[in-house]
Amino acid sequence: MTNPFELIKSQFVAELATTSLSDTAAVDALRVKFLGKKGLVTELMKQMGGLAAEERPAFGKLVNVLKAEVDQAIEVALATAREAELEQKLNSGWVDISLPGDGIGAGSLHPLYEIREEIVDFFMGMGFHVESGRDVETDWYNFEALNTPPDHPSRDMQDTFYLDKKVMLRTHTSGTQIHYMETHKPPFRMIAPGHVFRVDSDATHAPMFQQVEGLVVDRGITFAHLKGLLFLWAKRLFGNEVKMRFRPSFFPFTEPSAEMDISCVFCSGAGCRRCKHTGWMEIGGCGCVDPNVLKNVGIDGEEFTGFAFGFGLDRIAMLRHQVPEIGLLTANDQRFLRQF
Ligand code: DAH
Questions:
Q1: Domain residue spans in the chain?
Q2: Are strands 129-130 and 188-197 parallel, antiparallel or unpaired?
Q3: Distance separating alpha carbons of residues 206 and 128, to the nearest angstrom
Q4: Which residue's alpha carbon is at the smallest distance from atom 3 of ligand 1?
């Protein structure tokens, strides 16, 4: 009787000899034919179950040797075929690596976001804590605790978006000062960038814009500290050439108060239409924290003094990039945004 192991082996050798060794699919078909679920070798292994116990060890040994031989031969054939296919692919076409590639349209930071990041970075470097604050405020935080009397014009319905009698969209970020002082013990320094809302709309005013509030409370803080810090900051924002000045002003929550101007970015101070021929542009308000505000949050004004400031981010972005209309910053017009 012909030995089935020899028979299958010689059939495998013969078929392998006629299989294309540059065709992985053909080699794989051969693998299935011999080693697949219903493959010839597999079927032979299944026969073991029907054998007498004493015949099994010898049969098992032979069938395992056969399987190992076929396995190995297939592995080698597959590797050869894969290599041949790769070789063929490489030869069948070539790529001109000197051709320019497809451009990748990279985006850029929105000018408002960029300014905000820059400002946060500057103040964090000076040890300031960053607070986010909240868009909806009560009368206490937006006005009362900030020493703003009931008849103050900013409380007017014409300036403020009221949600309820004593609840509103915040008109400035200054309320965050109160939240912060109610929950922290001095000394501290913090900034609070965020959106604010006012019933107002023209080329330089929008119903929603962004401000950054700043607050420092410590022992021995003076107006000189405020001026030194803000002048340094303005140079960082607008370059070393920029000139700065403080103008006396009034805010209910600071005493004394000032408004800060920088030399006009359009005419460098010579005077032009944009700066109304003054050579200066206002960028924010500031002052020493009014003792009444400290009292409202339970801070001892004999021991501690402080300063505060509030600047418009949109305004800073407009000046920095010489944007003529505030609305452009939030219109999401690609033609505008692509310029940054
Ligand atoms: N809250 C003021 C505004 O919206 C800006 C401001 C002025 C903030 C003086 C301050 C400050 O903290 O001290 O016009």
A1: 3-92, 111-337
A2: parallel
A3: 28
A4: 172
**125-157 pLDDT tens trace:** 999 999 989 999 999 999 999 999 888 887 877
**What is the atom index within ligand 1 of the atom nearest the CA of 215?**
12
For residue 212, give every residue at least 6 positions away whose Cβ sits within 8 Å of its Cβ, in sequence order, or none.
116, 119, 173, 191, 192, 193, 194, 310, 311, 313
Q: What is the pLDDT of residues 15-66, one digit of tens each?
A: 999 999 999 999 999 999 999 999 999 999 999 889 899 999 999 999 999 9
Structure-model confidence comparison of residues 92 and 199, the more confident one = 199
The binding-site residues of ligand 1, defined as CB within 6 angstroms of any ligand atom, are: 172, 174, 213, 251, 254, 285-287, 308-310
If you measure from the C-alpha of residue 286 to the centroid of ligand 1, how many angstroms do you get, rounded to a whole number?
Answer: 6
Q: Say if residues 75 and 82 touch (Cβ distance below 8 Å).
A: no
The pTM is what? 0.70
Tell me, what DSSP letter sits at residue 144? G
CATH number of the 111-337 domain: 3.30.930.10
Atom nearest to 211 CA in ligand 1: 4
